[in-house]
What we know:
With 594 residues, this protein is of the alpha/beta class. It has 18 helices and twelve strands. It has helices at 3-24, 28-43, 48-71, 80-99, 110-130, 135-154, 164-248, 254-285, 297-314, 333-349, 407-418, 451-456, 470-482, 493-502, 520-530, 545-553, 565-579, 582-593; strands at residues 293-296, 318-322, 328-331, 355-363, 366-373, 421-427, 431-439, 462-466, 486-490, 507-511, 536-540, 557-560.
Amino acid sequence: MNSTERREQIDVDAALLQLLAKQGRRVPYPVGLSAVVIAVLAADRIAPWLCIAWVGLVFAVLALRWWALGRLPRLEQFSLQRRLQWAVALSALNGVVFSLSLFFAPYLSDYQRMVQTILLLGLAAGAVATTAGNARVFLAFLIPVSLANSLAWVSGGGVHAVTWIEWVLGALILGFAWILASLARDAWRVFVESVNIRAQQLKNNQQLRLALQQAESAIRAKTRFFASASHDLRQPMHTLSLFGAALTMRPLDDASAEIARNMNMALRSLASQMDALLDISKLDAQVVQVSNEVFSLAGWLSRLQQEFVPAAHGKGLSVHLDCPPQAWVESDPVLLERVVRNLIDNAIKYTQKGSIYISAQRQGELWRVAVRDTGIGIAEDEKARVFEEFYQIGNPERDRAKGLGLGLSIVSRLVDLLDLHLEMESEHGVGSCFSLSISAAEPRHVATVSDAELGARLNNLRVLVIDDEDQVRVAMSTLLASYGCEVELASSTREAMVKGLTKVPDLVLCDLRLRGADDGLAAIRSLRSAHPRLPAVLISGDTAPERLREAHAAGLTLLHKPVSAEQLVAAMQAAIAERGSISNVIRGEAGAIG
């Protein structure tokens, strides 16, 4: 017997002991009742004290089995085989005690003898279930009861001649015993198989739990790696982006301007790929909030179309838009834009010739926005995988110009978040169509603020920049000065407090992660303790989910490095617009104190 078989045998023996212990507490009730019935039948034929003595013996054995079988599973100081031997002995004792009742048979009437036989055969049949058909335990009870029962009929009790009917009954009892033994073998086989199946299930469950723990550990490691790598890469990218934006705002000759333009395009491409990783981190962190509003679909789609026209023309493609002016929807325009932008971007990437069609059609209470292309299409066996992270069709060499393979994964998650319905139709070699169903809304008048008005708010704006990276501070100062801002720089919360108390800022731009135990949230809280409701914007290269949740809980605008000049200016304008004339109020309070 090899180790696996030995382990299985141990499991089976242990399960049998558990079953016998359980049945040992149930069996005494029907068995004891049967013994009382037999004794009552014999009481008017033989001395009552004999019947009482036999019933007392039966109850004593049942009590012993109840006590001993209940303890056997816990007697781990003894081997399983030894404990099973005790179980066999108790079963044999029970069988011998019941076979003693057949000494009453010669004194019973034929009717009473038949009742006695039926009761004993019923106990033997019940033992198949209570012993799980185990050969040793079951036969230890079956053999003495069946043999004594058969002999009681074929011997005539020594008081009369044996008739042919009694011979037949004796033979039938033995035949019934043989059938019960066969049934017991089948029951034991089923019991062993069930124990082995349960053991295998437990083993599989343990392996699944281990695999799940390993998978969760790998996911956490992946998240930490992406967060760390993203932060470390975003710092220099952010610096380059700021210097590049400042450079394009200076007078340059044509050649230098072309170099600056190409450099910024490369940075935007790299930033786009980093943002795809950031989107995954945000969704994993569950910090993306949906802010629904009613907006015009026609103008919104027209802007997206114009944005992608240069990229499409660069590949010889055309981008067509068909959207009626009365198309208004209710959704989160920022998150929905991310979805449609990814769909259009994918359509351009995977289309070599032909056109991209963007359309909006009314369907009842919904507007169906579709992005259709004449690209390579998606094969049937790949349709389920295109929404997986990092999976790309036709990019085995991992050409970074084709992205990271996160676009449709982000689309799938954002669609679920927005509670939209996404449909995909695709034929390999013909093209693909992705469509979204968005709730229709009634047109509304939306008040807007002019760019000139917003731009004027940055002129002479006092901005306090808090960042522990020297190059980032210099780059931020260079860019903000180009917009006419008055810039103060600080590398820590303590330095920011000193400069913030000396000259009250209109706005704070603060890095989320500072050196040591310091962080941007603590810095802003300290500044707001001196200047309540001071407008502030967080800037971070950290994509760890827990850090994103902390920033979100603080209720601050969070920009992710690398930040383009347009993003930075928009966030600053939004912060100033949200606070209204808060800077004038703060300055008035400072003047009163002075």
